[in-house]
Amino acid sequence: MIKVLFVCHGNICRSTMAQSVMTHLLTQHHTADNFQIDSAATSREEIGNPPHYGTVNKLRQVGIPLVPHRARQMTKQDYTECDYLIGMDDANIRNMERIAGGDPEHKIHKLLEYAGSSRAIADPWYTGNFDVTYEDVLEGCEAFLRYLGL
After folding, report:
1. What is the pLDDT of residue 88?
2. Is 14 a catalytic residue?
3. Residue 8 annotated to the active site
């Protein structure tokens, strides 16, 4: 079982979108049973809240099922248990490393690194543009699948 944790600041926009997109792609590849996909926040601001309506609406628009989720904060135990911890921007990466106490096993990466880019996934909480966020998340998730050989 490969365990992947997507992480953003609040766990209601980007990371929940990535969780749903990756789950959908794995289902299409008939490999979902080999993976455990989850998401978390680096902050405590949104804990317990459902995904942002902009994420819900965008996923509905493109026909991707929303994975039932409530925001939670990443823990040090997540680092121990997960094979990949994937952040959305440089601030997420710094905070993930702080929570984990470093990254000695080199498990923490930015999503678009898998697509050969150092770009961040723009936070639609601030931009309001869930279309651009979705395109970036899809690009990163598809590149991650190629990285895994799927």
Report:
1. 98
2. yes
3. yes
